[in-house]
Each structure stands twice: as C-alpha cells, then as structure tokens.
Queue: 2 jobs
Job 1
Amino acid sequence: MKATFVAEATDGSARAGVVHTARGQFATPCFMPVGTRGAVKHLSSADLEALDAQVVLANTYHLMLRPGADVVEKLGGLHRFADWDGHTLTDSGGYQIFSLEPKVDDEGALFKSTYDGSRHKLTPESAAEIQAQIGADIQMVLDVCPPLPSPRGVIETAVERTAAWAERGRAAFLAGPTVDRQHQFGIVQGGTDVDLRRRSAERTTAVDFDGYAIGGLSVGEDRSDTGPALAAVTELLPADQPRYFMGLGDPVGIVEAVARGVDMFDCVLPTRLARHGTMLTSTGRMNLTRAEFATSTDPIDPGTPDSPVARWSRGYLRHLLQVKEPTAPRLLTLHNLHWLFGFVADVRASIVAGQFDAFRQHVHGVWDA
Amino acid sequence: MKATFVAEATDGSARAGVVHTARGQFATPCFMPVGTRGAVKHLSSADLEALDAQVVLANTYHLMLRPGADVVEKLGGLHRFADWDGHTLTDSGGYQIFSLEPKVDDEGALFKSTYDGSRHKLTPESAAEIQAQIGADIQMVLDVCPPLPSPRGVIETAVERTAAWAERGRAAFLAGPTVDRQHQFGIVQGGTDVDLRRRSAERTTAVDFDGYAIGGLSVGEDRSDTGPALAAVTELLPADQPRYFMGLGDPVGIVEAVARGVDMFDCVLPTRLARHGTMLTSTGRMNLTRAEFATSTDPIDPGTPDSPVARWSRGYLRHLLQVKEPTAPRLLTLHNLHWLFGFVADVRASIVAGQFDAFRQHVHGVWDA
C-alpha cells in the first residue's frame, strides 16, 4: 500500500493533512470545484489560480463524448488542455451514466450519449484507459451507483459488482501507462446500510487503491441517516490514504463528514447556487434576488472583505442577475468559491488549533437556521 | 464653444488626439465597448481595467427600465454602480426606441418596454434628465433615427425634428445639475444624402454641443455610399471637439472613418462576434468553430502574443465554445476587445508617425479579402 496522505494534525476523527501526488501536494480538508467539460462554468484557469483552488474536477462522461478523450490527449492532456497547473481529478463517468438508465451487466454499462444519442460502453477497464488519456492527477474506478433509495437487494448487488469492477479497474490501471503519474481511488458503496458499507469498504480496501471515495451517500438522502454509514466506512479506511466524500459541498455536510475523518469534497451546488443568486456568506445563505437588495450599496458579504467581488454592491450584482447579464453568474461563482475555499481553510485551522468541535458547533449555529 | 479635443497629430484628415472631460482625458482614435445594462457581456470592470479600456458605453433605454435611472443614481451613478473609474458614455435611448416602432410626435417618442410591456415616453428633456441621473461622463442628445433606407422626405423630416430636439435637449442639459461634470454630444442625421447631412451638421453645430456624433450611417448601408456623406459632415464640425461615429467597429470601417476625421467609435459587433466564435486576428477574421481547429495547439492569434487568452489553445477554446461552456464567450470577448484596442492604438500610432495612408492600405489588404 502506497502512503499518499500525511495527517499534520487530528482532533477526534477530524484530520488536517496533506495529500501527496506525482504532481506535488495539496492540503486537506479540501473542496474541489467541478469543471464538468474542462472549465468551471464561467471561469478559466486564470480565475482558479486567483482563487487559490487546489484541485479541480472534470467529468469523464462529458470529456469522453466531447471533445473525446483522444482529443484531450492530443491537446496535451487535461492540465495542458485547460492550462491548469494545479491538481485535477476525473470521476469515472459512472455517476452520470447511471443517471441515464444504462443497460448494465457484469462487463460494464451501455449508455446513450446525451449529445447525439450514439451508443457507448464503459467498462472498468475502459474507464481506467479513458481517464489515463485525459490525464488527471487522480482517476476514479468505475463503480455501480444505484438510484437511492433502493431496496437492500439492489444495494447489495451494487456493492458486489462494485467490488468486482474495482479489481478489474485496478488491474487495468496498474497495467496502463500512467501508473507513475496518476493516483487511482476506489469507491465504497452500500447506501445507508452500515453492514453493506462495511462490506464494501473491506472489499474495496482489499484491492489496495491510492485513496478511497465514499459514493452514493450525498444524493436524496436524509442526512441523519448518513452519519453511521459514513463512520462505519472511515474507520475501516487506511489512515495514511485520503478519503473523499463524493458530491458533498455544503458547510454542515462538510464539517459532519470531516468529523468522521473525511478529507476531500466536491459538489456542483456552490457554483450552481451562485448562478441562481444564492450566496454563501459568513451569516449563512443569502438570496440576492430579494427586492430589499435592489438599492443596497453593501458588498455581498461584509464578513468576507477579501471576496473577489467585494468591490461591487449587492444592488449592482442583483441588477446584473435580474437582467440575466452573464457577468452576474461569473462574479457570484467567484464569490461562492472564494467563500467555500475560505471555509475549508477555517475547518483545517480549527483542527490544527484543537478547536474543531467548537467550530463545528459554530457552523451548525449559522447554517441550521 | 468649449474646446474638448486637442489634436496631437494629424495626417490628412485623420487625427490622433485627446478628449478632455471633467473626469480627465482619453486618447483617440478610440473604440468604446458596449456595456448595455451596466456591464459588457461576460466582463466586469476588473476585466475592462485589465484590457485598458478607456470609455465604456451604457444604454439609457435598458438602464431606465431596469433597474431604473433612479436606482442607478441611488447606487452612486454609473461609475460607482459598475465600480468603473474609466470614462463612460450613455446613448440617448433613441436608437433602441426607434427600433420598437414608437409613436413619435414633436414632443417625443412613446414606446413599450421590452421587459414588461409598460408604456414610457422619452422627450429631449427627459432623455437629458435621465442621463444626468445615470451620470456618465458623456451623454447624448435625443435624436430621430428613421429606418434606413427611407424616402428622402422621411430623412428630411428626421433631420428637422432632430434639430428641434437638439435645441430642447441642450437647453434641458444646460439647466440641469450635471452641466459641470458631464459633456453632452449632439447627433447629426441625414442618411446618405450629402445635402441633408450638411444641413443637419449646420443645424446641430449651431446648438453648440461639447462634441458631435454621426448617427444613422452604420446600419444596413452599403459602405460605398457613406464616405461622401461622412466627409461632408466632418468638414463642418468644429476642429477642437470630438467626433463620434455611432455603431461602427470593424477595422476597415474604422480606418475609413478616421480618414475622414472621426475620433470615437462604438459597436456591439466585436463582442457579439466573439460570443459566436468569430475572432479578430492580425490576419483577418477567423471562425473558431471550424473543424480544423479541434486539435490545434496554437493560440487564437499567433500575431497577437499579448492576447489575454494566448495561454489557451484554439483546440481548447473551440471545445468550450462547441459545448456552450460560458467560459468560451468570456475568453473570446476578452480576445476580440484586446485585439480591437490594439488596432485603434495602431491607427493612432500610424497617424503620429505620418504613416496613416500606408496603414490604411495594409488594413484593406488584410480585411477586404
């Protein structure tokens, strides 16, 4: 097993650490914005540099169809493609494909392109190969993501198939050309069932990946159900490898997952909320479309004076949003990402200071309202 | 008459100069991008600063309806509103209104809002008042813009009404609160008829504005018709005040108008072209959507190495455009504006160097193809 994570401080199960990759390192807890088609919506790599983003996601499903993994490879791989020297991570494509009602068998998943209806098959082997072509620093193994909630039998089948695919995906990755410059993470499934989560964690860690993700816990689930399943997983994961909660990015969700030993997060929500005028602020969510902000000369969040949009008033930004000027989603995206990066930096600082529990309570106080 | 323009160099009728305002000064020839609703599409004032934009337009018609001139005023006026310390100019609203088939009489123009169908009236007096509220450095008098081509009688009536409105609009401006901090420009109409253009120029200059615009020459006209009408106007305009050709922004059009003594230009075309993937380059127009660029690692324009998007490949930018990522129109807009600002700087340099005719021929060689 390759040690890829060093904890610099812990507070209970919460960890402040560093993930080591072939490219270098990044600090955790870490929030990773989603650059679906090779760009975070409305932003460029220059913006991500200015925001001090550490890791940016890209979606294998989208890039394999447009422009094609071969085209990304010809253009120098994902980093050169987007001219981004920070870290990158690609999902396996599975999550999008399973939302398209694919035909799944033991071999893989057959699906139709949303772009042109053409038929494609993704297998554990081809997912590893395509992600090697795209060339992110971290690739994800192909897993089975059943819709949630599903009957226990469906979840159990998904856990078994995920485990079988993990072995095949890992073997393909290890035999591939990028083993020295990419990490590959396994994915633990199992719904909210603690026993199935444990079984999936054991089966997945037995394959020996470079890090582990928790899949299928963030979508359509009552959060009160997820804590035990999450804790059951993280206590079985190796301490010296990173843990990644897929699809989670709200402040309370992040502190609750960090409390159970998770290091990495991604979510489209902070950027999607921004595009619709919902701002993350030091006093909680703020709906910028409210009429009261029409003539406000205050900045979006007086508690975040270093926001990249602090120079513009709520009134101006609300106006741009209301008349659908594309400048608005861009500026509001910059704010939400800046805010969230600052938030996870605060989570990290609270762990280093041994004050994580107090910070966690503070977060609940602001965001549970 | 207030001297508001100083020619630093001339070459034939072409002028390289400086426009003086209450805010400061800007160099000419000058291209002014259009920030319709208080922002150039996809850009912020931070971007315009990075591009070294000198003057940005805003549309009175749009701002008076959304968010309302009173709201812009409450938020500190156009500069504070957009947090833009460069120069600004507002059109009168007439151009948009006349495209909506308004009811026009001697008093003003009655029109329906495109936002909610509500009815509004714009008069020469209210146009001056509303633009004073918005607070740009330069406001434009309300003129009559007949559709082109129109019968001579329609153009003649427009010239007469434009002259009458000019007197009323000027009187309202001079009696208003912003006479010390805004300029007001008159507008010459007259279609492509040299005699009507002369008459309009004489009637408009008799009112004594701070600068003069040429309206109604850029839309739907065969360019070969426009040279004589334009030259007839500029030779009647005061030498120590700026001349602004409304709605023109292509390289050949700019050098031809500069050759006839014009100083200022605005146009939505460079930014609109960008959003559709048509790039302005040192070798002419380039359609980025062409399949040949899919795997090109070259920058958009190797001849413009200081383009703000030079770090990204044609292949990457084309991909973002093809999959409709909003990052694409933003980056391509940055390129086209950077290119056009560089172009007018070259026009200026050629005048200062006494090489304008050679540069003008070079421009035709690149762009007439």
Job 2
Amino acid sequence: MTVLADETPVLAVDVGGTTIKAELVAGDRILASRRATTPRGPAAIDAIGDIGDALLRGASGVPRAGVILPGVVDRRRGVGVFSANVGWQDVPAGACLSERWRIPVVVDHDVTVAGWAEWRLGAGRGVDDLAVVAVGTGVSAALVSGGRLLRGGLGQAGELGHVVVRPAGPLCGCGARGCVEAVASATAIAQAYEAGSGRSVAGAADVFALAEDDVVARSVVTEATAALADGLAGLVQLVAPARIVLGGGLADAGEVWLDPLRAALGTRCRVVAAPPLVAARFGARAGVVGAALLARQGPIDMGGAA
Amino acid sequence: MTVLADETPVLAVDVGGTTIKAELVAGDRILASRRATTPRGPAAIDAIGDIGDALLRGASGVPRAGVILPGVVDRRRGVGVFSANVGWQDVPAGACLSERWRIPVVVDHDVTVAGWAEWRLGAGRGVDDLAVVAVGTGVSAALVSGGRLLRGGLGQAGELGHVVVRPAGPLCGCGARGCVEAVASATAIAQAYEAGSGRSVAGAADVFALAEDDVVARSVVTEATAALADGLAGLVQLVAPARIVLGGGLADAGEVWLDPLRAALGTRCRVVAAPPLVAARFGARAGVVGAALLARQGPIDMGGAA
C-alpha cells in the first residue's frame, strides 16, 4: 500500500463502545466531522457505514479510510474479533466498509493506534521506548519498545487496566478483584466517591474538584493515584520506557492529577528509574488522529510504516 | 561483524555475581570449561582474563569471544556500567579483554542473552512473543515481542523481580517492600523457611522437599508460588507472551514447582489469557550457551542477527 501525502484528504473513524467519531482530515485540518451513538452488536457496522457515507458524500478524491475498533482486533484480516462493549464477534469490518465506501479501509486496534498517534505526532515524539496510557472509562496502554509498537502474542499487549494492584480490592468487570481499572479509572473514581459519600457526581473531574475540602473525595483520589502508580511502577520495571504519556478522559484534570502521580511513581521505581510523565497532546482525539495516519500510511508494521 | 559457522570454536564467558563460568564451544560440543569465584570490583576483569587465557592456551583458531555481564551493561561500548553484585562501575570489559585475548569480544547483558539462547535454541523456539524468566538468587526476565528482544529505554527491561506484589511484605535488596524477588526467589524461600521454622536449609530445593510434611515449608512454598504468579499475571497482561519459559536455579525443582505455578497463573489471567508455561532447556548453562551464540553471530539487533 503506497503512503499518501499528508495533505491528501482521508476518512478517519474511531469506533468506541459508546460513540463513533469520524472526521475527514487533510494534514492537520479537519474538513468535516460527525458523531453517532454506537448501536450494540453487528448493527454498529451499518452505523459506521452511514457516518462514513455522510462525510464522503460532501467530498471528492478521498482515496482511503482508517477505522479503529475496540476489543480484540485481527488487523491483518480487518476483523473485529471480539468486543464486550460493542457486543460483537468476528465482524468483517474492513471488507464490509471497503465494499460500501468503495475505497480501501485499513483496520487496527483503537488503543494501539491512539498511542501510535501520540508517539509519531504528539507527546511521545522522539523516543523509541514509550508507554501511552489512557485512563478513562477503563485503563489501557500502548507500548513502544526499541522503536516498535508491542502487539503481543496470545491476546493484546498493554492491558495495564487488568494488572492487579489491590488483591482484596473492588471487583473489576473482568471478574478479578483490585485491577488498576477497578480503582484508578475515571469510572471507578466516580463510583467510589458516590458509594463513600452517598452523593452523586457527574464524573471523576468533580471528585478531583472536591478533593481539597471533602475528606471522602480526597481519600478516593489518593487511593486511585496510589493504585495507578503501583501499576505504572510494575510497567516501568518490565518494559523500562523512556517516557510515559498520560491521556484519556482523566487527563482533562491536568496537573492536579499528574503531579501527585509523578511523585507516587518516583518513590515506587527503584531498580528501573521512573521516566518523565507528561500529558497527552491529542486527548480524546488521539484515536481519530491515529486513524487518519493509518489511512495515509497503510497498515502499521506490515511491511509498511513503523 | 560476520556470522561464524556453528562448528567454529568460540570462547563463551558468563560473569555472575559469585561465579565466572567459561567454555570453549564448537557447535553443541563443550571442548573445555573452567569456573572461578568472581572477585569483587574491577579485579573481576583480571579473573575473567585469566580464565579465558587458560582456555585459549589449549586451543587454536578461536576467532571471537562472547562475554555476558550482570547489572547495567552498555553493549554498544562493551562496558559494565554498574553491578551491585560484582561491585563495579564503568568497567570497559570489552576493550580490556579484547586487548588481552587478541580477538574481538562481543559484550551483552547476562539475563537478556540467556533468554535469547532459550528463545533461539531452547524451550522458547518457534514463538515471536516470549518471556524467559529466571528464578534463582534473584528473579528476572528476558522479553521477546514481535520477534525482537526488548531492551528498554531508561534502564533494562525485564526487571520482574522488582515488581511489587506484597506492599506490606518483606524488605527487598532494592529498598522496596514485597518485590517478587523478596518473596519468590530461591534465596527468599530459604530465608523465609529458616525464619519461620528456626531450622537451617541448604537452599530452596530443601524447602520444596519438606513441603509435603512440614507446615512451615508448605506455607512458604504456597506464598512464593502465589507471589510469582501475581508478578507473572501482570507481565502477561502487559506484554501478552505466547509462551513463558521458566529457568534459573529453582527450575531444578521441576514439576513440583511448575505445576502449582501454572494453576495459580491460570486463575489470575483474565483479559489476556495465561500462555503455556514450560521448563527452560539449558538451565544454569543458558548464559554460556547464549555467550557462545553471541560470539558466533555478533551483537544482537545491532545491524546483525535478531
């Protein structure tokens, strides 16, 4: 697959468990964008098709699309193998969408591609050993080592959210207790605060805002920071990144979140030192930016771009 | 650096914190071998030199040597950057030994090279995503992902021994509490048994042998297995290996050790499944086998062999 010039308009689609985000992008310019709620099950493919159609209708000369999917993805065959959130199994997304849009469609895994975007164009530029960690509804990581994205053999590499750090801690969606995700995700922070205070919040950002005056909020934030730092410290000892980029919904909290996390990570890393910890550049748009890069460059590490 | 034929005799040296092991090897045949106690500090270089001289004296046509060092190693410059066990810092091992032996010397990191040997020639053959874990005096891992050895950016990748699994657990040599190494290494098992029973043992193998009848031994072994499984489960979620090879001194315990570890790992891996767990092929000789391969093939991943 040839590499397209940066300025070529491409269709970029990030399929999330709740929202489909799509953009027509040329270089850094967003020519048009659309969002839709993700329907459950294989019907999601029709919704992705519709949103792409709508964007392509208003454009001409769009030679390729990049589509990123959650869960387990077979990028070689362009298949969504499994996603609990979307509720699908073995969906030939690449083939279906390519037939519908009449352009080649490059498919890959959402977290990996979002991390790739931060590595190539964002806060991870310039290093060959990197962890891009997204903390939002869940917690996951894209890992780069020696200038290559780690993919994993059995299963997908980078499942930081399911490293257990509190064996007697809260139950995780995966069935284990005390996963990083069950304590340190935005969802877990909001839930722990609501359970502890009896009051409801719109999200984790509210809990951070309350932490200065509210004892329950402070304790929830402290515990979430400690749990994430425990997971990151293990990651650091195992893959020794030269930099960690923190993104996902919780990154909107900014330095209120990052600063204590940096301190907690520093005290925990002894044999392999804690690397610099920086905020992501693209935030929630990292997936779409990566999908556009995927459309332009073709499949990652498959005889094409690194 | 050209790749030498398998049958070419090479000098292979594994410098450990307590013992220097050296062999003259041609293909699978050990032509001669020597051991010596490792002196502390830079004097270790003289001892390595002596042992190599003695082996080279009895041979002719040895074109190259492979030397592997513990701790932090700068393989590009052939320098032992730091080793707490040997007690040295910034020792130009490659240059010194090359001048003394009058042959090129390829230098690399001991755990990485021992893992490389298991990957290329041993129990890890045939997979592109592998963890080779050594459990002995310490606990460490060599990681292979996508057909490449992970090296790490800041520091050395694979420090599984310093992933914390028991935050309130025993103090580790690194200064943290409850590292995998502080609970699950052969050293930790022997110490925990001696502390719990008031009786002394020759090593961890004795504790395994006692575990059927002795309550203290059983509890120490159970806890060590659980702690190692916790660390491995984290490793599996992060790098998703297709196979785990278990080696180091404790591997001599065999299935008595591996079987419960397999079961414990299986119950802990949920999002990324537990891969098959097999015993290493080369045991304590993996380092020397890898050093011989290093001598034959030249530097790993430096424009040469993978």
